[in-house]
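Write out this protein's structure.
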Amino acid sequence: MPAPPHLVFVPFLARSHFAPLAAAAAAACGDGTTGATILTTPHFAALAPASVPVRAAPFSFPGGHEDFSLLPDEASAPAFFFAAEAALAPALAAAVRAHAGAVAVVSDAVLHWAPRVARECGVPHVTFHTIGAFAAASMVAVNLHRPDVLQDPVAVPGGFPVPVELRRVHVNEEALAHLPLFRAAEAGSCAVAFNSFSALEADFAEYYRNVDGSPKKVFLVGPRRATPSTARSDVAVTGGAERDPILQWLDGQATGSVVYACFGSTCGLSADQLKELGAGLRASCTPFLWVIPTATEGTEQHDERASGHGMVVAGRWAPQAEILAHRAVGGFVSHCGWNSVLDAVCAGVPLATWPLRAEQFLNEALLVDVLRVGVRVREVGGKADVEAVVPADAVASAVGKLMDGGEDEAAARRARVRELGVAGRAAVAEGGSSRRDWARLVDELKALHGHGNDALIDK
């Protein structure tokens, strides 16, 4: 019987990218079928699950910046990517060669150099997407089939599984420009894995597999989400007298009554927008929990209770997965980052969608137009709409619609997302679809040992 492969996971140096790969590494260690190592930098090593060995490569970037998602506007994004490659590529080669048995590399899709390093070391490589299959498939379809100038709006072309119409501003032109580089790199992988699950995105994963005639296999292995109990630096306080004050406050709220608002750790809002968001939450007459992980102008550095309205938490980490799973939470105002989407869907919580950048607009289209588990906070027809301050009345209106506006419609939305939540939790349970996909991928990697990336193709 072939020896269990040792998987070297290489996340990109951004927290939203690091978390799902780290969670996948923890799952790989925990199921007994593989060993795993995370290759990263000292900054991110502190965030790795305690159950997974870490190899930390020295990393230096002007200004001391270590997390791509927190780079200031004046910093050079290409220079950061170059610095990441300079630090991690030789460390990856060393990590692979340190293992005498079967080894495979699992790296973030944006690390376009990783398949080359794996090939030079004679080991298989798996491309891991931290975005959803719908967003990835949409980008590939538009890139392969678009005319010289994108129409506005543009229907996603190429026989897409469902009819979807996007505004031009929804399509990240910078990402499109780099897509050929990433696709060429992915062609050097033996397989592609998405942090998603079959009931959510099977059709889009299949489209992604077939869109360009590639023989590569595509696996849905999620949801892989960071959990507070596995982090080295974020200590969860979830029981007894040390239960997080946020959860204690939720304990006192009626079932399904609270709307939770959070825009992630890297999507900052202006002081004017924060003011309008707060006013809108209060005007909605709905109990709210508003978390601002990174304190900025206009936020406080401590928990405060807005008497008669809700709770504001600024400048600290909050246990999002536990918040969304709490019985009191009935809706989520979100920027539509993929990690937050998975958190909400797996908890069975509908969303008020407020995308800000990157593929978040594509995630909104999936949630609102395809799955019908979300409502838009605003309509975005152009760049000016993205940059405009959303007024308080628009926030209040969206929250009202999400929580109880049009009672039958809201009930149907809740039923759909709860069904997806059941499917998402089942996918990673024993015998679930994602567990089966992961087992198939590991079996194929075992068979590939000594044969390289080209052997893993559809039969």
